[in-house]
Design goal:
The chain is mainly alpha-helical and 174 residues long. Helix content is 68%, strand content 3%. The protein contains seven helices and two strands; from the N terminus they run ααααααββα.
């Protein structure tokens, strides 16, 4: 992971050189960048598979940058907004790498995070199995993941109908 981080830091220097290119980029620099690009993609995939799923290595951000960065010459010709976006993605990946390295260091010391699984009642299990019936989904944790506008409209109409029924009953009983 540390080697991956070192290559990522070197890539930053190459990106900055391409972004601020006042002199032409040499073929040797171009070749080195393409080699590093290949290394980053391979190592990123391997690290992503080896680390726990809740730790981000920064692979998504790296892939965004590497897709945009066909070579250094194309990077130097990009507009300022695109360059700032790529540089921002570089920083996001860098922070994710450091976070992952820190977590792995803590794991190496023997700490293992406990993932508490909330036991669900039979009612919650039934609600999970009927998920989607009324236009909403329930996530695996048992929480409503997404509300549907249809469900909201049905609830409003039902509430108005019950209110009208209560008013009608109160007026006709008295």
């Amino acid at each position: 992971m540390v080697e991956f981080l070192e290559i990522w830091k070197e890539t930053k220097g190459m990106l900055l050189k391409a972004f601020m290119a006042k002199e032409p980029i040499s073929d040797a620099e171009e070749e080195k960048f393409l080699t590093q690009k290949t290394q980053l993609i391979r190592m990123g995939k391997r690290l992503d598979m080896q680390t726990p799923s809740y730790l981000e290595v920064g692979n998504d951000q790296i892939n965004k940058i590497m897709k945009a960065a066909v070579n250094l010459k194309i990077l130097s010709e990009m507009n300022t907004i695109a360059k700032k976006g790529l540089y921002s993605n570089w920083h996001i990946a860098y922070l994710q790498m450091h976070r992952t390295i820190g977590a792995l260091d803590v794991f190496a010391d023997g700490y293992r995070p406990k993932r508490e699984v909330k036991k669900r009642s039979s009612f919650e299990k039934a609600a999970q199995s009927m998920s989607g019936m009324f236009g909403h989904r329930i996530s695996a944790s048992g929480e409503t993941a997404e509300e549907s506008p249809v469900k909201t409209i049905i609830m409003i109409v039902t509430g108005l109908a019950l209110t009208a029924l209560l008013i009608w009953a109160a007026l006709n009983i008295g």
